[in-house]
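so im writing up the methods section and need the uroporphyrinogen-III C-methyltransferase record in one place, dumping it here so i stop losing it
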Amino acid sequence: MSAKVWLVGAGPGDPDLLTLKAVKALRQAEIVMIDDLVNPAVLEHCPGARIVPVGKRGGCRSTPQAFIHRLMLRYARQGKCVVRLKGGDPCIFGRGSEEVDWLQQHGIEVEMVNGITAGLAGATNCGIPLTLRGVARGVTLVTAHTQDDSTLNWQALAQGGTTLVVYMGVAKLSDIRESLLAGGMSANMPVAMIENASLPQQRECRSSLATMQQDALAFQLKSPAILVIGEVAGGHQVRAMAATA
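--- predicted struct ---
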């Protein structure tokens, strides 16, 4: 498959959540450029490929994005079938669209393969529906970490009435808590903090907006983790509310 790059979502960690389309792409791959959060078990689908680690982790030494761009271009121009393998979904906090645009500007064909995002898989594994009739009519995915240190409109998020799923928020629990409280969200709002979504070592800590920081400290919450903030994280009582709605 000459001069083509596949941007493939590997899902949140559980290799069984890989899509059939992702498996087909990996089976064709000659070069697999893999992110840090991808489960190595996924690589069983491309035993003959050259594996190139290009990890990017907050707070750790990371592969520069410009280098990743140039490497994809070099391999594609050599006529290799290249798979850029990303954790979760390439277009949910994965810079997938940036890579598509850059490659297309250089004349390279690109195909995107979606993956299941950690917020969905982690919540499901904890029995949390991100939307629920009579309780939550929508879900909002946000990241607490931005490249330019810009601030989200926390007041709008606090008053939006949707379930909030916060990625990369462990280091900013205090800021998230204070911002949502200042925006008008109830201190009693349920919060689920989910570490290592979908993996055998997944852990969850149920809390509230008021106490989530101290609970996370006692729980020794570590990245990678997602936060689910909303009534849906309240458990069986919320389901009873939905059943009567």
